[in-house]
Specification:
Blueprint (H helix, E strand, L loop, with lengths): L2 H36 L9 E7 L1 H4 L20 H8 L3 E6 L8 H4 L8 H7 L6 E5 L7 H10 L9 H25 L4 E5 L19 H24 L3 E3 L26 H4 L5 H17 L4
Parallel strand pairs: 1-2, 1-3, 3-4, 4-5
Length: 299
């Protein structure tokens, strides 16, 4: 073999590793691009909108400051629906109709100068992906019971039968009908009925409020739990989702040393804030709802 032949052979051999490296690089790039296009894990999560209906337990009444454009409904910048969108950036609020003091009537009738909440929901364009609602507490007269506890006795005759009968007999059909109406107003949305959190100490040893004796604490705690059970059954009957928040404030209920619930007051503004979750309570409720959505995501 001539020296030229030997040199040509060496050049041919030297080029092969470069060709192999280039081929591997191209193959790797092809695989990476293919995986990127086909792998759903890498896709950006879908954005979803929320319509917020209901009463003060959705408006965030216990946690000022409140929106100044519509101050009568006392919608807080710290309200749990807004905290929820901070926890999950794929969520945004397209309608915030929840209003402090609202009963189920506010769903179908004008309240505090605003259109019925269901009317607002029907007119919403585009339609929301999720509708949340807390309702029923004001229908049950729960806030009046708490103020009564503070001023004299929780139940004037010492018995809670009248309040329990109202919750057991009047609320179930009323709530079921209204949950179905919400579903009909936004037929393609997930309807989430958000339960009420327990706001009283789980034992008398944790209670630091002198105005709430042991018997009354048990009565109002039981009434709180009964209301939440009725809400849950009505949601089941209406075939909508129920989101539990009963334990969201656990260890931080009203009348505990590190409470996340505003204390009872007789005069404004304290009276309006009474027995509603503070900013920390709103965050805890938002976390409970975010956990539920994560576990029951139907996207």
């Amino acid at each position: 073999m001539t020296s030229r032949g030997r040199r040509s052979g060496r050049r041919g051999f030297a080029c092969r590793p470069i060709q192999i490296v280039l081929a591997v690089a191209v193959l790797a790039a092809t695989v990476t691009v293919s995986a990127g296009w086909s792998d759903p894990v890498l896709a950006a999560p879908a954005h979803r909108t929320i319509a917020v209906l209901g009463d003060s337990y959705s408006s965030g009444e216990g946690s000022p400051p409140f929106d100044t454009l519509d101050p009568r409904c006392r919608r807080s910048s710290n309200a749990w629906p807004r905290e929820l969108t901070r926890l999950d950036p794929t969520l945004s609020i397209s309608l915030f109709a929840a209003c402090a003091g609202a009963t189920t009537d506010a769903l179908n009738e004008s309240f505090k100068g605003e259109n019925p909440q269901l009317t607002q929901l029907r007119q919403l364009r585009p339609a929301p992906d999720i509708v949340t609602i807390t309702i029923g507490g004001n229908d049950a007269g729960f806030s009046n019971v708490i103020v009564s506890c503070f001023t004299w006795k929780c139940f004037w005759d010492g018995k809670d039968k009248r309040e329990r009968d109202r919750v057991n007999k009047e609320l179930p059909d009323l709530l079921t009908a209204n949950y179905r109406a919400v579903k009909a107003a936004a037929p393609r949305a997930r309807v989430l009925v958000v339960g009420y959190p327990s706001i009283f100490p789980s034992s008398q040893s944790k209670n630091i409020c002198k105005w709430l004796n042991s018997t009354e604490r048990r009565q109002v705690s039981s009434l709180n739990s009964l209301l939440d059970r009725v809400v849950r059954r009505a949601a089941d009957d209406a075939d909508v989702e129920y989101v539990p928040t009963a334990r969201a404030l656990r260890g931080h209920e009203m009348c505990t040393r590190n409470s996340w619930v505003a204390p009872v007051g007789l005069f404004s503004p304290a009276r309006d804030l009474s027995a509603h979750p503070t900013a920390q309570g709103q965050q805890a409720i938002a976390q409970a709802i975010e956990t539920y959505l994560t576990r029951h995501d139907s996207r």
